Amino acid sequence: MTPKILISAIAALIAMQQVGFAQIRPDEPRRGGGRAENPPRYPERDRGGHNGGGHGNGGNHGGGYGGHHGGGYYPPPRPPVTYPTYPSYPSYPSYPTYPTYPSYPSYPSYADRTIYVGRYVSNETFRLTDLASLYSYTGYRISSVEVVTAGYANGATFATMVLTADQMVQSTVSSRGESVMMFPQYRSTVGYDVNVLRLQVLGTPILIDRIIVHLSR
């Protein structure tokens, strides 16, 4: 290569390098590292800082758009969300306590109804339902009817006694003067099976002291 050509190549290389330098911005770092010397200053927007000035949405010590010590944009905190509270429903009054009904009196399991006669009886009918007030003992069963005697005028003959319930013969006995016990043959519940209870005394006069109706539940 001749010296003339070499000089021309060097001059072209230097021109190209100067063109490249002219295209580099002064505030950008060079490709070889570092920043351009004496870069031109441009008006900058306040970004805040530790002690920066300006007005804006800054942090504690600086203005601009900075945060606590500058840099970045942080939106203001949102207020807490409050949800509406529903009203409490009124409490219903308690129901009144109803009075307790008194317990029914307990009836005895057995009862005796006595009819006092104290005289001679012949061919006579006793309506025991009325004389013994059996209507007050509805539900009781007639267990037996006892005829207590005290003798009769003529001991050689008999007196016949017939117990009937609603025209149905329940028992028939004969006596020369002794007391007798008559037992119903059929169901005999007062107010259900028996509405009218009768005792017939037939034949020879007999001295009857009392008649007892025995009841049971």
Structure description:
- This protein has 217 residues and is mainly beta.
- Strand 4 (159-165) and strand 5 form a beta hairpin.
- The protein is rod-shaped, with a radius of gyration of 67 Å.
- It contains 2 helices and 8 strands; from the N terminus they run αββαββββββ.
- It has a 4-stranded antiparallel β-sheet with strand order 1-8-3-6, with no helix packed on it. Strands 2-7-4-5 form a 4-stranded antiparallel β-sheet.
Topology of this protein?
Blueprint: H1 3-23, E1 110-121, E2 124-127, H2 128-131, E3 141-152, E4 159-165, E5 168-175, E6 180-182, E7 197-203, E8 206-216
Strand order of the largest sheet: 1-8-3-6
Low-confidence stretches: 46-69
Given the structure, what is the number of helices? 2
Per the principal axes of the C-alpha atoms, what is the gross shape?
rod-shaped
Could you describe the largest sheet, including whether it forms a barrel?
4 strands, antiparallel
> Average pLDDT across residues?
76
Short description:
With 217 residues, the chain is mainly beta. It contains two helices and eight strands; from the N terminus they run H-E-E-H-E-E-E-E-E-E.
Name its key features.
single chain; 217 residues; mainly beta; four-stranded antiparallel sheet; 12% helix; rod-shaped
